[in-house]
Amino acid sequence: MQPTTTLDTASADTTRFAAFDRGLGGTILRVSHLTINVSDLDRAIEFYERAYPVTRAETIEMDVQPFLGLGIERGRFRARMMRDRQSLEGRGLLLVQWLDPAPVGEPYRSANHVGYYRMHANASRSGQRARYDAVVAAGGRPYGPPSRIEIAPGYVIHSFGFRDPDGTTLEWIGPLDPTPDAPDDFLTAYNANVADLASAHAWYRSVLGLRYQARLNAPVPQPPESGSLGDLTQLPDGSPYDGPTHFDATILSPWGDVRNAVDLLEWTSPPSYGRPYASPTNLGTQSVTYEVTDVAHIHAKLLRLLPDPSTHLLHGPEEWDLGELGRRGVLNLTDPDGLRIQFLETRVTAPADPEPRR
Description:
2,3-Dihydroxybiphenyl 1,2-Dioxygenase, domain 1, globular, 5 helices, alpha+beta
């Protein structure tokens, strides 16, 4: 008698469903956007359109309102959503200029600082050499020309990082030369430096319910200039480090949209250090926003999932006026390292009335 595969298939389906239903896995629709605080919105819009694969989209102008999940009782900002040309809307970048309270601080100065350090974009069609020239022409500050970096055993890519006008680090990856029949250049993953990869990975899997995609862990340390990732790394005491570098990372994404993943990365040589920005108006990449159907439902689940909700949730669900994005339900959260995560209710539009039958 031939063995049946029915039970094996059912078991696999059950396991997959259990993973999908872990934490918030089945309730997160996709990555909506990353918020980058800037000091001059108009200057930032011009720079990003010239140096990155995005164009201006929705505008946010508002009256003063509470942002209690950020610890701001009364505040105001102006912002512009920047989107790439993916056929199905992917992650955007929300450039935010705080007006009240004013922007503070500066973006992270070292590549191994805990926090959202690098945004990734793929030069799939134009090629990195052309993008490097465009960054320089736009006034960007590359850390070096496109260079190779081994990110997993036998898996070598080319990349280069650069700073925007305020000092926020962005990155291009992909082919060195143009690929005319490739998709348009597009936004991809975002990098989150963490203090301990094992615990961060477990939290993002068990609480956010994100889907594991890949492990990035080169077999040996590499020269500090590999990948042109940053202009410096530092030791925990703040002194500069110029030796070989090494990191360990996992790639995770929402179940509903794997295109815009989080790159959880622990630096091991030199080690990750520091804490994310204390102020929500600090210049630099502040938060990642996930789109969901109901922030009240997310809040209720988090109260059950988190061992100590008060250490991660400053306030419950709110409604924010987001200009052309509409009035939306919002919930703010911090992960175990203090990185800011936001949930945004999707805007549902009613289908058009069908034409009457004849």
